[in-house]
Amino acid sequence: MMDPFDDTYFMKRALQEAETALDKNEVPIGAVIVMNNQIIARAHNLTETLNDVTAHAEMQAFTAAANSLDSKYLEDCTLYVTLEPCIMCAGAAFWTRIGRIVYAASDPKRGYSLVGRDVLHPKTELLTGILSEESAALLADFFKAKRDD
Length: 149
Hints:
By secondary structure, this protein is α/β, with parallel strands linked by helices. The protein contains five helices and five strands.
């Protein structure tokens, strides 16, 4: 029997957050954090809204999840994010001890993989490429529209 709450299901929820960011004229990146098949945090980029370069979707999601659990550690949680985390967000993921990260599109210009896997906690599991085409298209359309303005 197929699990309705699989990685694709939760990445679609992250993509909904990215659409919310797009509606706010933010870079369309979304994230959700899941524990026991329950979304405990939803977030999207808010760097323009908050005038804060650290207000990435992942950072917002980490804070919301920590508040939800009343704990700074997220070992039993999975972060679903529509774009490969940057070095800052990967560093924050390290400190949360998040159990698993699933991301859609790779970010060869600013993603954490530029410095290697060691920036993530050694116990963090990693899965990439879930709905990568949808995520990449959303970002490409956003930046194309910006260039055309």
